[in-house]
Amino acid sequence: MQVFSIVMIIILSILLLYLLLYTLIGYLCYKASLARKSTGKKLSRLNRKLKRKEEQPDTSWWQTQKIEDLYLQSDDGLKLYGHFIDRNSNITVILIHGYGSCWHQLAEQAKMFYSRGYNVLAVECRAHGKSEGYMVGMGWLDRLDLLKWIDLLVERNNNCKIVLYGVSMGASTVCMTLGEKLPNNVTCAIEDCGFDNVYKEFSYVYHKKLKFTSPAIFKIFTSFVKRARNFDLKDGDACKQLKKSKTPLLLIHGSNDKFVPTEMVYRLAESCASSKEIYICEGATHAESFKLDPQTYQRKVYSFLSKYCS
Hints:
Layout: H1 2-33, H2 36-49, E1 68-73, E2 79-85, E3 91-96, H3 107-114, E4 119-123, H4 142-156, E5 161-167, H5 169-177, E6 186-192, H6 198-209, H7 215-228, H8 238-242, E7 249-254, H9 263-271, E8 276-281, H10 289-292, H11 294-308
Parallel strand pairs: 3-4, 3-5, 5-6, 6-7, 7-8
Antiparallel strand pairs: 1-2, 2-4
Helix pairs in contact: 1-7, 4-5
């Protein structure tokens, strides 16, 4: 009887230790990958790396514009913010920024659409900037928020035309949104360097970029997020969503993207059931296509828009 008790204590101790390690590792990975605070730190580190002034994104253009601040409530009760520039146009482009980024950093892209005479709505994704939220949506949760922004624009102008434009995580948000039921107001979409699947993107980053990370740690991370945060990373499948798309799509990617592998854009394009075009910017790294070759970039975008936003 005494031996049995000792064995049971040992077994329970091992189980308890396992649960503690599981929770600790899962929580730390979550904090580093998806928690709101971690994205701000990543952005700060990125900005420090851009030492030369000419490498810093020029966000001063926003300060020259008359901006209307908007907000709405997400389906799960978060207050989300957006910033609207009215050019008295019937066409509005919704800009969606990337992971750990902010709406200010899409100034050059906003100018591109503004110069064409379009209204611009730059949104702040959940868990970024002024928008509420404790966990980054990775496009999957953000797609439902984007539907809300689309509804808001339609409420303001029932006859408006809407273009969706996103970079990196924002691009994946666009692709995932295209699989939902959209109003006819959404005429076309542009995605720049989006990933095809949340799980696959994190797997790539953990195993290829963070080479010290073991498969077991990644498995604990994904399991923890699913159980503790009710977010199954495998659900965030842009390819699956694009198979239901009826919206014309322009896919843009850099040929030298090492963060979201270039091969992902081809999987997105292959999955897309609607009309699509692909532009690969030779030599561009992640989210650098516009900066590397702005003339070609704008020509491709304007050519695409001329077909669906006349």
